[in-house]
Design goal:
The structure holds 2 protein chains of 2 kinds. Chain A is α/β, with parallel strands linked by helices. Chain A is built from 14 helices and 15 strands. In chain A, the strands form 4 sheets. In chain A, strands 8-7-9-10-11-14-15 form a 7-stranded mixed β-sheet, with helices on both faces. Classes of the chains: A alpha/beta, B mainly alpha. At the A-B interface, strand 3, helix 4, helix 5, helix 6 and helix 8 of A face helix 3, helix 6, helix 10, helix 11 and helix 13 of B. Chain A: Keywords: Amino-acid transport, Signal, Transport.
Chain lengths: ~400, ~300
């Protein structure tokens, strides 16, 4: 009984008592698999699990998902995959065959999503991924036609940085000199390898370039090297621990260029929590239309229900994938997986991140690429076609 | 010459193998997924015990060989025929084990344990470094292989491991290893080339783990260092083998099967405490069943014999 989210049942009972009993009450079993332990547990605890909780709360509070004359409450069945693809496969298989889940939310992270894709495909579950970033979306969507991608790709994310820097250069705020560093792990490597040629093509001079292993404790050589090269812009394709480490070290060493960019986790509320006013003007991967009413309402609900603020990158798209599933079930007027999958393929959706539709590779082509801390909020400054971007401003020191 | 008992054991083994091969026809997809997990850990734990059982050298290098195998498939499958990759991975695994073995098997005790643990991390860092230089991220192994294919491949591999183990047990090498396990000094004085014997066995173990990795790569599809070289794998293999007991060839599988179901039950029922409960199980196994199920059986048999003697 513990694995069933109790509040789903509790909410269902409460709602039952309040609503006019004109609709028959049914339950949809929704599976959720993600890391609660292992290397990715920290990220999932910020971007994934709170949104699962919030979505179930929102749906049930609004009276469930309405299909025909019936409203379905959602019951979440959660499993921990321990950041291990073998466990993800087992958990999704268990959901499909043992729990007979009606739908399964996409797992967390690129590797775990792709490992689970064949099982989603075999049982016909639509799979709208929120945190899978791949440079092989075309191959994947050919192989797994039920698989959709919402968060964008490395080329766009790196391209956004180059666009922002180019704009700042044209405005006369920065010069040509870029110091570029990357964490020698997975996504950091990919961003660096697509980012470097784009920077060079845009006419930037890379005056310092280095990489460091994931988990490096002492980042002072990296920052000192960058500082000695006297850059106009500092770009770090970094991961959560080093995003924090590099920022801290830059403050200590007094590396304060007009453009300071760190990648993953800059958009986390914890970043502003740690650096306070010094975070002002820092650029990072992701972003949202932070001034939009949709996001503001979502953020307020997120905090009220889960007790934590959403991050300014993956949180809202994660919630959006659940909204898409919700709308597709209602739109298809059926809880049949195939009908819902077909509805997803042929429709666009209005979500917390704005309208979402699919390109020829089942991918959302319009996503946020760069954000900047401005007045305590991480605002989107560049995207591949989203509304609501604000202008990037030059950073003025660490005070 | 083979004795009647040995013929009988071979026949039982073959019958069990055929029975296991029928799982995809009788069990559902869920049982098959569990079956793949059991087959995978059976190969890994049995081949681990082939080396560590008689020599008492605890190797934590399973993840290193396993990762090597997944990368063999990941890097090679666009250039080579898939069916060549598994044997190739086995050869590479054996070669790596030989190099490592020659360098370290003269070490003993805790030095060897630490080295093997570091080996997986070392190779993982090398792969990461290679990726950083080449700018390439994860690898994709998109094939048409399904879980049934992977399950059968693992079963065949398991059969090969058992056959190898059985042959080694009957050979001079197996005899030499048992002596090394009892007292390495005595073995050396009896004229046994202890280093050579240990390296050979380590190579068998490494080859089997690498082949397992190569077979499983199409199941994971997406290969990256953090997933392929996860140190958890090495520990799981050790704990499963110890639960079964390393004294007999069939020991590890007796540990793998209950442990897989236990693991599954914990994962399904306590998604928020999985790791905690697994840790408690590890402790329980070490304290309550230090010699595994094999040891438990031996103890029971000895007691029963003693009782008969008194009556």
């Amino acid at each position: 009984m513990k694995r069933r989210t109790l509040f789903a049942a509790a909410t269902a009972v409460a709602t039952l008592a309040l609503t006019v009993p004109a609709f028959a009450q049914e339950t949809l079993k929704i599976g959720a698999v993600g890391p609660k332990t292992g290397p990715l547990a920290g990220g999932a605890a910020v971007s994934f699990w709170p949104n699962v909780q919030l979505w179930a709360h929102d749906v049930n509070e609004a009276g469930g998902i309405t299909v025909g004359g019936t409203s379905y409450m959602v019951e979440i069945i959660e499993y921990d995959d321990q950041t291990n693809p073998g466990e993800t496969i087992k958990a999704v298989q268990r959901l499909a065959t043992q729990d007979e889940a009606d739908f399964i939310l996409a797992p967390y992270s690129t590797g775990l999503n792709i490992a689970a894709a064949p099982i989603f495909q075999r049982y016909g579950y639509p799979m709208v991924t929120h945190t899978a970033i791949s440079d092989q979306i075309e191959d994947l969507s050919n192989k797994f036609p039920n698989m959709y991608f919402l968060l964008g790709g490395a080329t766009g994310l790196a391209g956004g940085v180059v666009d922002v820097l180019t704009d700042m250069r044209e405005a006369g705020e920065i010069g040509n000199r870029v110091a570029m560093v990357n964490v020698a792990d997975a996504f950091g490597i990919e961003l660096a390898s697509v980012g470097k040629p784009q920077l060079e093509e845009a006419g930037f001079e890379i005056v310092y370039e280095t990489s460091y292993p994931l988990g490096t404790q002492d980042l002072s050589p990296v920052i000192n090297g960058a500082k000695d090269s006297n850059p106009d812009a500092f770009v770090a394709w970094s991961y959560p621990p080093d995003t924090f480490g590099l920022t801290e070290q830059a403050q200590i060493a007094g590396l304060a260029p007009k453009a300071f960019y760190t990648a993953v986790a800059t958009a986390f509320p914890a970043y502003a929590g740690r650096f306070g006013a010094a975070a002002e003007g820092v650029l990072g991967a992701g972003g949202v239309y932070a001034d939009g009413d949709q996001f503001k309402e979502y953020a307020a609900r997120h905090e009220a229900v889960t007790g934590a603020k959403p991050d300014f990158w993956a949180s809202a798209p994660t919630y959006a994938t659940f909204e898409i599933l919700h709308q597709a079930i209602e739109g298809a007027g059926s809880t049949d997986k195939e009908a819902v999958a077909e509805y997803i393929a042929n429709n666009s959706f209005e979500t917390v991140i704005g309208p979402v539709d699919w390109d020829e590779n089942n991918s959302n082509a319009k996503y946020w690429t760069v954000g900047q801390w401005q007045g305590g909020v991480f605002k989107g400054v560049a995207s591949t076609g989203r509304d609501g971007a604000v202008a990037a401003m030059p950073k003025s020191g660490w005070e | 010459m083979m004795t009647t008992t040995e013929y009988r054991n071979l026949a039982i083994g073959a019958a069990l193998f055929i029975l296991a091969a029928c799982l995809p026809f009788v069990g559902g997809a869920y049982l098959l997924t569990i079956g793949v997990t059991i087959a995978m850990y059976t190969v890994l734990a049995t081949s681990w015990a082939l080396f560590s059982g008689p020599t008492h050298y605890i190797s934590l290098a399973t993840a290193a060989f396993f990762g090597l195998g997944t990368y063999t498939t990941g890097l090679g499958f666009e250039h080579l025929d898939y069916w060549l990759l598994v044997p190739l991975a086995a050869i590479l695994g054996a070669a790596l084990a030989a190099i490592v073995g020659v360098a370290t098997l003269r070490l003993s005790g805790v030095y060897f344990v630490i080295f093997t643990l570091g080996l997986a991390e070392l190779i993982r860092q090398l792969v990461t470094w290679g990726q950083n230089v080449s700018g390439q991220k994860g690898l994709y192994v998109l094939t048409d292989l399904t879980e049934v294919h992977i399950y059968w491949q693992l079963l065949v591999l398991a059969a090969l491991v058992y056959l190898t183990g059985w042959l080694i047990g009957r050979s001079r090498l197996g005899f030499a290893l048992r002596i090394i396990g009892d007292d390495e000094e005595v073995a050396r004085h009896s004229g046994i080339n202890t280093a050579r014997a240990k390296v050979l066995l380590f190579m068998v173990s490494g080859a089997a783990a690498a082949a397992t990795g190569a077979i499983l790569a199409p199941r994971y599809i997406y290969i990256e260092p953090a997933l392929a070289f996860t140190p958890m794998l090495s520990f799981q293999v050790v704990i499963m083998a110890l639960l079964g007991g390393t004294g007999r060839l069939w020991g590890p599988v007796v540990g793998v099967i209950p442990f897989t179901f236990l693991w599954e039950a914990i994962s399904a029922s306590f998604p928020n405490q999985t790791t905690l409960l697994l840790g408690l199980c590890f402790l329980a196994i070490v304290f309550i069943l230090p010699k595994g199920f094999v040891g438990l059986l031996t103890t029971i048999r000895t007691r029963m014999n003693a009782r008969e003697a008194f009556s």
